[in-house]
Amino acid sequence: MDWAGEGYILSVKKHGETSAIIEVFNRERGRHLGLVRGGVSRTKRAVLQVGNFVQLEWRARLSEHLGYFTIEALSFRAAELMDDRLSLAGLNALCAIARETLPERESYALVYDAFEILLANLDDPDIWPALFVQWEAGLLTAMGYGLDLRTCAATGTNDNLTHVSPRSGRAVSRSAAEPYLDKMLALPAFMIGSRYVTAQDVADGLALTGYFLETRVQWGVNKTLPDARAQMIARLKTAGFA
Amino acid sequence: MAGSTVSPEIERLISLLAKLPGLGPRSARRAALALVKKRDGLMRPLALAIADAADKISVCKTCGNVDSQDPCHICTAPGRDPASLCVVQDVGDLWAMERSGAFRGRYHVLGGTLSAIDGIRPEDLNIASLIARSEADSIKEVILAMNATVDGQTTAHYITDHLVNAGVRVSRLAHGVPVGGELDYLDDGTITAAMKSRRPF
């Protein structure tokens, strides 16, 4: 069994004295694990950093085996983002969410495409926090827990949508949400087409997608959201971007 | 191991040696044979040195270094600059810094880096004691000598965030072209880091 392709490093874990078990995100194969021989060597260590884009070749005797990766660096995104605390927090959260939520060896091409766009923009804090929210919303959709933000769940209208029902994941108009404001989740305008994003919108968006990722995806497998996501939100808040 | 041909004492020695980093069962066997052949010249002094180290070595409660005294000889050395504190991940990094002789201040060993994958959280590292030390009046500068990895830099940013109110200058080691390094042989990430850290010349 073997395949070749490109992908992003999601995690690296030392295995034994010289090898590493890595998780990569490939467009056709999804999240895929494999062993890299000599993965903790001086030359490979720089390549095996989360967020780096690599050429991959995977081999195993049987498809269900862990298998071995041969890797070659294509882009050192981690080194580009490492100096900036916000970008690094975003990178850690992005890879942690992908690692924790995506099922192994299932293709999520659209999530992958959005992942690439988000990673490419992680150095611009005016853009990436909103992209992150959109990526998480897309991740929910890809996993079958998509939010329905087209019309109000109560009235069927599509104007003045301001909240989302935590029970159904459907949008709710301001008037219909009025009696349940303490239970409803705020719906940021940029998630339904507005081009303007405020820090409060980003905070609302992260709370919205975080709620559904945790309750729909993570709780089902007895997990919570990764700490890296909470650290990213804290950094964004401190910097005034959320 | 062929248990019938080797005595239990040697077998035990080999199995313990095989647990050392860099040694597998085969190299442990060679090391055991070398020790047996040089019983008086190597085996007994090694056994004594190991027993002596096991009895006397402890972790310095101030900085996290390993030494035969607590506080360690670096923390108590009078000639060192008490205003500079260099934060390193492990004792191996402290030894590397000391070998270079480039730093004559005090150290703080974190004991690792934050890692979501390995589940290492701030409370698992010596970060609280670092913040307490940094808030002491004598510390003027904290130098973060962390590895240039995602985990190393995540830890460095975390520490920087928590030293905001300590009233100390926080700096970090430069990333870039190593001495003797040729650009043609450097990876793209190192060149990117070097370009970002360029300075007037």
3D structure, described in words:
- The complex is a heterodimer of chains A (242) and B (201).
- By secondary structure, chain A is α+β, with helices and mostly antiparallel strands.
- Chain A folds into 2 domains: 3-78, OB fold (Dihydrolipoamide Acetyltransferase, E2P) (Beta Barrel); 85-149 and 187-238, no CATH class.
- Chain A is built from 8 helices and 8 strands.
- Chain A has helices at 42-47, 77-81, 85-101, 109-120, 128-142, 174-177, 199-218, 227-238, and strands spanning 2-15, 19-26, 30-36, 53-59, 68-75, 161-164, 171-173, 185-186.
- In chain A, the strands form 2 sheets. In chain A, strands 3-2-1-4-5 form a 5-stranded antiparallel β-sheet. In chain A, strands 7-6-8 form a 3-stranded antiparallel β-sheet.
- In chain A, α3 packs antiparallel against α8 (227-238).
- The model of chain A has no long low-confidence stretch (mean pLDDT 93).
- Chain B has 2 domains: 8-56, RecR Domain 1 (Helicase, Ruva Protein, domain 3, Orthogonal Bundle); 66-200, 3-Layer(aba) Sandwich (Dna Topoisomerase Vi A Subunit, Chain: A, domain 2).
- Chain B has 8 helices and 6 strands.
- Chain B has helices at 8-17, 25-37, 39-56, 73-76, 91-100, 127-134, 150-162, 188-196; strands at residues 58-59, 66-67, 81-88, 105-109, 141-145, 169-172.
- Chain B starts with 7 loop residues before the first helix and ends in a 5-residue tail after the last helix.
- The mean pLDDT of chain B is 91.
- The A-B interface holds A 11-13, 17, 43, 45-47, 49-52, 73, 75-76, 78-80, 82-83, 85, 88-89, 91-92, 96, 99, 226-228, 231, 235, 238 and B 21-22, 116-118, 121, 148-150, 153-154, 157-158, 160-161, 175, 187-190, 192-193, 196.
Descriptive keywords:
heterodimer, A: 242 residues, alpha+beta, OB fold (Dihydrolipoamide Acetyltransferase, E2P), 2 domains, five-stranded antiparallel sheet, three-stranded antiparallel sheet, 8 helices, elongated, B: 201 residues, alpha/beta, Helicase, Ruva Protein, domain 3, Dna Topoisomerase Vi A Subunit, Chain: A, domain 2, four-stranded parallel sheet, two-stranded antiparallel ribbon, 6 strands, globular
